Amino acid sequence: MNPATAPTPSASASASDSASASATASPTAADLSLDAATLDLARAARIYAEHGCVIVRGLHRHTVAAVAVDVQRATDEAYRLADKAVRSEEGWWLGGNLFIPAAPGSARERQLMLVGLGYRRSAAMLRAALEPAACDLAAAILGPDVELMDDGQIVSKEPSGGHAKHMHQDSAYFQHAGLGPAACLTYLIDTDLVNGALHVVPGSHRLGYLPHLDTTSHLGLDPQTWSIERGTPIIGKAGDAIFFHQHCIHGSPSNRSKAARPVCIHRYRAIGDRIVAHATTAANRAHSGADSAAERERAVQRLVVRGFRTMELA
After folding, report:
1. What are φ and ψ of residue 207, in 5° steps?
2. pTM of the model
3. Which tens digits make up the pLDDT trace of 216-225?
4. Neighbouring residues of 12: CB distance < 8 A, sequence distance ≥ 6
5. From CA 125, how far away is CA 246, in angstroms rounded?
6. Is the dihedral of CA 113, 116, 118, 121 positive or negative?
7. What backbone torsions phi and psi does residue 257 show, to the nearest 5 degrees?
8. What's residue 136's pLDDT?
9. E strand or H helix that includes residue 56
10. Cβ burial 60-87 (10 Å sphere, 16+ → b, else e)
11. Among 127, 185, 125, which Cα is nearest to 156's?
C-alpha cells in the first residue's frame, strides 16, 4: 500500500466518533501477531492496513542483545553527565538524552526518558534497523521505495515508577502527508503489564489526527476519553517488534518493576512522503504552521533501505 491509496479519515474526528470506533470488540494481541520465522509479508501488510498495527514475534531476536548492551552503556553515560543537562520546554537535554521530572518518591530529581543513542553511535542499532525482514515488511506496507527516517530512538522507563506514556499518536509530533512513518518498536527486555507493556488501539488509525494536550509525558490525548485501559496490551519477549501507523493510538503505563524497561524504535517511511505538521507541545502544534513543518522536514536524516531515490535538485 502507498500514500496515494491510504485511507483518509477526517482530521476533525469528534469524541463521539472516537468512542464508536472502539465500541466493537477489539482484536487481541494474538490476533495481531505473526512469527518472524514464518513471516508472510502480504498477510502482515493486510493486518497493518486493517488495524494500524502488526506484531512480529522474534523479529529482532538476533540483534536485541547487542542493542541492549549499547543502551546500557549510553544510559550509564547519560547519568554520569546528567548535571550538564540544559533546561528546555520538554525537560532537560543532554545531547540526545532527555530527562524529565522524576516520579514521586524517587531518589533522583530527574528521570531519563530518551536515551541519546542512534545509528551514528551504535553499530548494533543500525544493524537492527537494516534487518532484512523489517525492511521487507516496511516495503510491503509502504511501497517499494522506503527510507529510514532519522537516527532511531531509545525510550526508557526507569525502575520503580518510571514514567507512563499517555495514549497518543505519533502524528502529534510529526504528521505526514501520506501514510507517514511505520514505526517499529522493539522490546529490548521481556515486557509485561508490570514493567510497562505497549498498549495499542487497533483501528484507531482510521480516525486521522486527533487534538492532543500537554501531559507529564509530553503530547497526549485527553485521558478522560483515551485511558490506557482502552488499549490492547502487548506482552512480549525481548526481540518482539510492533509496527504501527502514524495515527495509531498507543501508550504505556509506568514501570513498577525493579529494572529499567527500554525499547528501540525504528521509523520507515515511503520516499517522497513529507512532514506537514510538527510539534513538541500543544501550543506550538497549534501555532507552528507550515514553516515549522518544512524546517523539521529539512532536518530529517534519510537512508534508503529499499528501492531508489531519484535525484533532487535545489
Report:
1. -75, -15
2. 0.91
3. 889 999 999 9
4. 208
5. 22
6. negative
7. -90, 180
8. 98
9. strand 53-57
10. bbebbeebbebbbebbebbeeebeebee
11. 185
CATH class of the domain whose range is 13-175+185-230+247-260+277-306: mainly beta
Q: Where are the domains of the chain?
A: 13-175+185-230+247-260+277-306
Q: Which residue has the cell 541492549?
A: 68
Cell of 139: 516495503
What is the DSSP secondary structure assignment for residue 116, as one 8-state letter? -
Taking the chain (314 residues) in consecutive chunks of 10 residues, what is each chunk's mean pLDDT?
A: 36 44 74 98 98 98 98 98 96 97 86 98 98 98 98 97 96 97 98 98 98 94 97 98 98 97 98 95 76 92 97 82
Q: How far is C-alpha 177 from the chain's CA centre?
A: 18
Question: At a CB cut-off of 8 Å and minimum separation 6, what does 223 contact?
Answer: 166, 167, 215
Question: Is there a contact between 117 and 69 (Cβ–Cβ < 8 Å)?
Answer: no
Q: Of 179, 195, 234, give the one whose Cα is nearest residue 32.
A: 234
- 79-111 per-position pLDDT tens digit: 999 999 999 989 999 999 999 999 887 888 999
At 79, list the grid cell: 547519568
Give me 308's grid cell. 531508489
pLDDT in tens, 192-213: 999 999 999 999 999 999 999 9
